[in-house]
Structures are given as C-alpha cells and as structure tokens.
Design a protein that fits this description.
Blueprint (H helix, E strand, L loop, with lengths): L1 H20 L13 H8 L3 H10 L7 E3 L2 E3 L2 H13 L1
Antiparallel strand pairs: 1-2
C-alpha cells in the first residue's frame, strides 16, 4: 500500500515539473521585449506584428538568445520617438 502511494506522489511531482517547463516565451521581466510582449505593447495581433516588421514599421530585432529573437526596450522606444517625430 505504501509503495502505491509513493508511486502516485512521484508521478504527481514529475507532472508538476513538466508543467513548469512547458510554458511559452517570457513576455516581461527581462531586458528583452519578445514577440508577444511587442504585440501586447502595441495592442496588435501576431499577423500585424509580422506585417509591421516586413514593411519596416518595427525596427529589426537586435537580440538573439538561443535562437529566440527580440528587441531591446531602448530600440523600440527609439523607433517610437522617430516615428512620432516624422
């Protein structure tokens, strides 16, 4: 009986660990603005973000961490100042 309970507890612990690892890219809390954070910042969809990137409305991404691309907050702020002045 104790072995069955121990096995259930062990399985539950593994499931919790896997749940923590399966989350998506961070949105905030780092010195990088990721895609989802950019979408939230401007209130746009992923398709609109892609369109803005391809037309040059958003600056090129300047951070590459393990293949994940993003922007420095200063880069987006500079682009905002530049577009509002134009």
């Amino acid at each position: 009986m104790k072995q069955a309970q121990a096995k259930k507890t062990k399985t539950a612990e593994k499931k919790q660990t896997n749940d923590l690892r399966s989350r998506g890219a961070p949105i905030a809390g780092t010195a990088v603005v990721w895609s989802k954070g950019c979408e939230d910042r401007y209130g746009i969809s992923a398709v609109t973000r892609w369109r803005w990137e391809s037309t040059g409305r958003l600056p090129k991404r300047d951070v590459n961490l393990g293949g994940k691309l993003g922007w420095r907050p200063e880069t987006l702020a500079a682009a905002e100042r530049g577009s509002s002045a134009a």
